[in-house]
Write the structure tokens for this entry.
Amino acid sequence: MRTHLLHIVSLHRIGAALSGLFILFLLTGDATAQNTPGSGTPAGMQGVGVEEQLGALVPLDLVFRDARGDEVALGTLLDSGRPAILNFVYHDCPMLCSVLLDSFTDTMKRMEWTPGREYDVLTVSFSAIETPDLAARQKEKYTSKLGRDGAGDGWHFLTGEDEAIQKLAASTGFQFKWVESRKEFAHPSLLIFLSPEGRITRYLHGLYFEPADVRKALVEASNGTVGSAVDQILMYCFQYDPTANSYVLHATNLMKVGALLTMLLIGLGLWLLRRRERLGRASSAPSHVTV
């Protein structure tokens, strides 16, 4: 039985690896056949990627349509005082965008926090031909999969005109383009974290995201207004490492916290010893009885 289980696990891991390679193949597609001279980037992928704009403000006056078809400005969606996660997708994407939304939904399910309470999510279609009806179906699908009461109030599926899409993408450094030979968009996959004021605070790249990293990025985006005291300590001990695309322990800060805790423990121990001595002297002192 144990051998059978190990065999199943091995097959699962091999299948996951093959799926990742297949997605990478789709991203490069027929563009791998020829490269631009002097560049390591496939010709079909030129101009696709992310130029991080940390600290920049997204244009709050840009107008999109929500899943009901109502016009709404970005600033209105960000006036809750909560941090937000922005992700770009297009709903007719043959694979990558659905993988991103599936994995991101799974990440949110593994978190204690819920969209509309501790944070908001802006899922923006970068295909100008997609409609609010399509966005509404996607919203119903993924909020149902998330299974959290009230999540629909904080997870916004937006569509818009090409001008608004291009301006928002440019402000975040998100670069995509239509590949005519494949009749689909080439685009990166990532999450962009925004402060309540609409300032870009962090990028997490990829298709799969650890709940701990998303939580830390939200605490960072909120400037400490979201999360517990433990979250604040963790943010001091962990710093984002772009090479690892994750939050890693910061040795110096960790030693500072360790030294502080050690001093507190020593102080507490000395206080307990002195209190015990005082109680011992009080109990051993002779009592005076007046007749």
Confidence is low (pLDDT under 50) at residues 1-39, 234-238, 250-254. DSSP finds eight helices and 13 strands in the chain.
